[in-house]
Amino acid sequence: MGDLKVPVDRVAEFRGGVRCRRTPQGPLGLTLTGRTGGHPGEELELAFAGAAPAALPEQLEDVVIERAAAGEYRIVSGARAWPVAARSVHLHREIAERFYRAIPPRPAPLVRRMLFGVMLRLARSRVGIALLKALRR
């Protein structure tokens, strides 16, 4: 008989250093933070709704997270692997840089920029602050 292979789903992949943060209280018991392997340079945070493995170090290198079965995950780094039992996994990728490259911010209208410029100049002095307070009433 051949080896029976358990199907594995890849949840996330980190490149480089990965910080492992344990949280004894609260719903998320373990959070991994680092840079993603699939989208170089993006910050990736993966939180497990379950307890962290006791032997898991605080820092890992080149980590792959795999789903072994429902509620069972495996953290793989090099030749080592740690099983994690968790109800769910919460993944957050920081994509703000790509978002703002695709959709640049709209420049503020000239009148608004001038108004804020005047207000900032007035706020530099006590007399200006008093004037701004009087205008506000």
Please explain how this structure is put together.
The chain has 3 helices and 8 strands, in the order E-E-E-E-E-E-E-E-H-H-H. Strands 1, 2, 3, 4, 5, 6, 7 and 8 form an 8-stranded antiparallel β-sheet that branches. The model has no long low-confidence stretch (mean pLDDT 86). The chain folds into 2 domains: 9-99, no CATH class; 108-136, no CATH class. With 137 residues, the protein is of the alpha+beta class. The longest helix is centred in the C-terminal third of the chain and has 13 residues, at 110-122.
What portion of residues belong to β-strands?
35-45%
**Oligomeric state as shown:** single chain
**Poorly predicted tracts of residues:** none
Number of helices: 3
Helix content range: 10-25%
- Structural class category: alpha+beta
Query: H/E order of the elements?
Result: EEEEEEEEHHH
Compute the number of structural domains. Answer: 2
Note the overall shape: elongated
The N- to C-terminal Cα distance equals: 86 Å
For the report, how would you describe the main beta sheet?
Answer: 8 strands, antiparallel
What's the helix and strand layout?
Blueprint: E1 9-22, E2 30-36, E3 43-48, E4 59-61, E5 63-69, E6 72-77, E7 80-85, E8 89-93, H1 96-102, H2 110-122, H3 126-136
